Amino acid sequence: MPQATVHLLRHGEVHNPDGVLYGRLPEFHLSERGRDMAQMLAEHFAARVQDGARIVHLVASPLTRAQETAQPTAEALNLEIHTEPRIIEAENHFQGLHATMGEFFKPKHWFQLRNPLRPSWGEAYKDQAARMLAAVEDARLRAIALGGDGAEAILVSHQLPIWATRLSAEGRRLWHDPRKRECTLTSLTSLVFDDDGRIVRVDYSEPAAVLLPGAASTPGA
């Protein structure tokens, strides 16, 4: 079986002036900076293709911010965007609330905080990693079918599911401090597979790092 790489791309900055934890809520669009980030990623991928990379498959979460992040890359590489529900944002009890500690720790929410290792306020980390890795495997196989040995796929997803996937791929515990996730806006977490379909390396990069200073990054979960 040929080798392949699956890139997990976090979406760009979201227009969210009220600081809402938007989770799976619809119609949260990219900000102007977020659109610039998406365009910069498209240029990054186009330059890699010019240098010989075979990026042949593009997938995005059904949420607006992921679809909008994928669009410039679709246009630059002449690829169709395949919508994949398995790479959607994590479920979260706090969705729709203002993302502040004062809000989260109100007495009415205490029951939801009973087990931070699962976590009890949303979708279990292990469930996120499982659905993401299933989608990754399908994308790997599709990329190989389309591009052969060394083919690459891009999956546009969300911070927490990407981070859970990386922790799982690296054999680390899934519970973590959310403030310490290495998964900035429009970052790439790249899963590199050998010819037996095993993940042999996880690479991380920030092609739009120049646009990160000053960017808002209210987490979706």
UniProtKB/TrEMBL annotation:
Record Pfam families: His_Phos_1 (PF00300)
GO cellular component, one term: cytoplasm
CDD domains the record matches: HP_PGM_like
InterPro entries the record matches: His_Pase_superF_clade-1, His_PPase_superfam, PGM_Phosphatase
Gene3D superfamilies noted in UniProt: Phosphoglycerate mutase-like
Domain of life: Bacteria
GO molecular function: phosphatase activity
PANTHER family named in the record: BROAD-SPECIFICITY PHOSPHATASE YOR283W-RELATED (PTHR48100), PHOSPHOGLYCERATE MUTASE (PTHR48100:SF51)
This protein's name: Histidine phosphatase family protein
